From TrEMBL:
GO biological process: microtubule-based movement
Record family assignment: Belongs to the TRAFAC class myosin-kinesin ATPase superfamily. Kinesin family. KIN-14 subfamily.
Family matches, as Gene3D superfamilies: Kinesin motor domain
GO molecular function: ATP binding; microtubule binding; microtubule motor activity
Binding site for ATP: G154, Q155, T156, G157, S158, G159, K160, T161
Source organism of the structure: Echeneis naucrates
UniProt name for this protein: Kinesin-like protein
Keywords, alphabetical: ATP-binding, Coiled coil, Cytoplasm, Cytoskeleton, Microtubule, Motor protein, Nucleotide-binding, Signal
Length: 408
């Protein structure tokens, strides 16, 4: 019996040992599992934190930086564009897709995608209100003493004027009337905190590198010449320009109507002139809070640029050639100035074009800049659209210092 018992105990001991080994290995597996779960959680937390961090630092960097919004114009018949794709889940991406047909018919058609990402992409259905909501904080900061510049870039007919001015007195009003409305409303609110603001508006057109006052009411024959001047304290002013003191929204809307009238008179004399000129609306804001002994001074600058289409040499002769050269010169200088600012170059060639000279105070370290790149959805605009998006993404890559408010 003893022998038998010894054998059974030995069997039991073997079983116990094998159980122990299994438990150990299960424990090890558990540990491994626990480790990987923990690691996974940690890994994902780090990714989330990295993203939060990247977004935060982007937001900080972007504070004084150029932001770029892309807006796609609806097609004339309200249909879908064939080559522009916006992902449903991401409002920062846009893809231009080009299908290259096989010429021989032997190979299949190939599709080439051009992807771009911006701070925001608005599709054809985006309303003026939605667009404005995204820039209203920027407009607001003009009252806090920041210089703010918002400009629309794109080929003729891509929706720049619609974005900046829109239609009168309804929900299709664009950035300029909405910004003005917001500034006056917010200025009134700040009044209860002891702030007193004064506003001065001007509206100027740059055509063929010469300036024209859009608020001029005198005789056409007596239109004065204008020069851009920079004062000792770096303020840019235009000689002989109408600077109109304004205190409410209606007054500014009246000035915008006057500017449109002035533009259409010139337009009648010269077909399509407004497409070939830059128009710059400026609202100078001065605030004083006597109780707190603080002052602030800034400019809100809203610009509808000339059409960015490239020069078609064979079709451009005489006056048209001169215009296109002036437009190409000033738009490419705008790109050069922005790149020079981003590269922190010592010399920024503001003076190489009237446009950049005039916008000098609003482009650079001490300002907030937003660029709309407007694009047309038609297939025959593919080349121009690609060009505009390439220009805009170059601008989007620029990091231009941090803005600081002009407060004393
Ligand atoms: N988002 C939009 N929704 C509805 N209509 C639009 C939109 N964008 C543009 N349009 C219409 O498309 C046409 C061309 O737009 P717009 O005049 O703004 O182009 P543009 O880029 O300013 O051209 P130009 O360089 O000639 O001034 C206009 O009739 C305008 O009302």
């Amino acid at each position: 019996h003893a022998w038998d018992l010894k054998g059974k105990v030995s069997d039991l001991e073997d079983k116990i040992r094998s159980y122990q080994t299994r438990v150990k290995s299960v424990n090890q597996e558990n540990e491994a599992l626990k480790g990987s779960v923990a690691e996974n959680i940690l890994y994902h937390s780090i990714i989330v934190l990295q993203n939060v961090f990247a977004n935060l630092s982007m937001a900080f960097l972007k504070q004084g930086n150029i932001r770029v919004f892309c807006r796609v114009r609806p097609t004339v018949d309200g249909g879908l564009s064939k080559h522009i794709q916006l992902p449903a889940t991401d409002n920062k991406m846009i893809t231009l897709a080009k299908t290259e047909e096989s010429h021989t018919g032997k190979t299949t058609d190939t599709q080439k995608n051009y992807n771009f990402s911006f701070d925001r992409v608005f599709g054809a259905k985006a309303s003026q209100q939605e667009v404005f909501e995204e820039i209203s904080l920027l407009v607001q900061s003009a009252l806090d003493g920041y210089n703010v510049c918002c400009f629309a870039y794109g080929q003729t007919g891509s929706g720049k004027t619609y974005t900046m001015e829109g239609e009168e007195f309804n929900e299709n009003r664009g950035v300029i009337p909405r910004a003005v409305q917001q500034i006056f409303k917010a200025g009134e609110k700040l009044g209860s905190q002891g702030w007193e603001f004064s506003f001065t508006a001007s509206f100027v057109e740059i055509y063929n590198e010469s300036l024209r006052d859009l608020l001029y009411t005198g005789k056409a024959s007596k239109r004065p010449e204008h020069e851009i001047r920079k004062s000792a304290n770096n303020e840019v002013t235009i000689t002989n320009l109408t600077y109109e003191k304004v205190s409410n929204e209606d007054q500014v809307l009246g000035l915008i109507a006057l500017a449109n009238q002035n533009r259409s008179t010139a337009q009648t004399a010269q077909n399509d002139r407004s497409s070939r000129s830059h128009s710059v609306f400026q609202l100078d804001i001065e605030g004083i809070n006597a109780g707190r002994d603080v002052k602030c001074k800034s400019t809100l600058c809203l610009v509808d640029l000339a059409g960015s289409e490239r020069l078609v040499k064979s079709q451009s002769q005489g006056e048209r050639f001169k215009e296109m050269t002036a437009i190409n010169g000033s738009l490419s200088n705008l790109g050069i100035v922005i790149t020079a600012l981003a590269n922190k170059e010592n010399y920024i060639p503001y003076r190489n074009s009237k446009l950049t000279y005039l916008l000098q105070g609003c482009l650079g370290g001490n300002s907030k800049t937003l660029m709309f790149v407007n694009i047309a959805p038609e297939t025959d605009s593919f080349g121009e659209t690609l060009n505009s998006l390439r220009f805009a993404s170059k601008v989007n890559d620029c990091v231009i210092g941090t803005a600081s408010a002009n407060r004393k």
